[in-house]
Specification:
This protein is of the alpha/beta class. It is built from five helices and five strands; from the N terminus they run E-H-E-H-E-H-E-H-E-H. It has a five-stranded parallel β-sheet with strand order 2-1-3-4-5, with helices on both faces. Strand 4, helix 4 and strand 5 form a beta-alpha-beta unit. Helix 2 runs parallel beside helix 3.
Amino acid sequence: MKDGKHVILCIDDDPDVLSFLQLVLEAEGYVFAGADSAEQGLRVYKEIHPDLIIVDLMMEEVDAGTGFVKDMRVLGNKAPIYMLSSVGDNLSISTDYEALGLEGVLQKPVAKEKLLKILKTKLG
């Protein structure tokens, strides 16, 4: 937390997605932290220790998001991680996302109401 607000780290190489997430999160009183690659996301994670993480599946490399999640496990991360994907619904059906260390998968474009419901459930 920062100044009594939950910090959400969002990692995506699409600036429009990051802008949308920043707008929604800050309007609801969360602190937004953004990164445009898994590598940058790792650096930001180490600096801010976010309360929740949203990471895109495919960025600079096809499996950049899953690689980031593996790095989070190695670092002992306890913050919930949600994967963002354009194939989100199909991924949820075909993948055991809990085994990957994920709390869930969000379909792009992210539905604002669904995102806020998840944040309120996980963070209070």
